[in-house]
Amino acid sequence: MASAPAPVGVPNFDGFSIRRSPRRARVSSDRFSDGSWLQTPVCEIMTRKVIAVSPQLRIEQLILLLIHENVSGVPVVDGEGRPIGIVSKTDLVADDYDWAELREEARRLDDGGALPVHWLAASSTVADIMTSGVLTAPSTLPIPIAAGLMAESHTHRLPIVNDGGDLVGIVSSLDVARWVSARMGAVAR
To answer: Which of 57, 143, 144, 182 is deepest in the core (most CB within 10 A)?
Structure first.
């Protein structure tokens, strides 16, 4: 039974062919036959203007930064600018669950305001919630290898470092998805 054509604007990746109405443009797999696109380094898709934070940054400031910069996570760097962790909205959510348990305990102990729960939450820093032991990669790493590392480690962000270990860029899972999509001809780059 023949499959129905893809709706307008929605690519159909049946055998690397993309069909679009009304013109029915096609991109054949021959475009990828030499495999050179598989060696494209991450420096081609990385964000060079990296927003990074210190482990001493307070949680409230982190939240404001993520909102203001419209990002879901950032690398945490030491005083030398070298990545030491990643902090994301997921870390904030997990931390909020921990604080919920602490707040409940504080309410049981609180006899009229003796334990300032707000102060407890305000004292938390990025170091308290970040994911340590960050995975990094050189700017020459091929994008498919970087994608595999990210998938294997269940991470959405890969800090890119120079030979000295200094942060020079970041690649997100969305960057990789856009690159794959552009290689397949599904979107304009």
So the answer is: 143
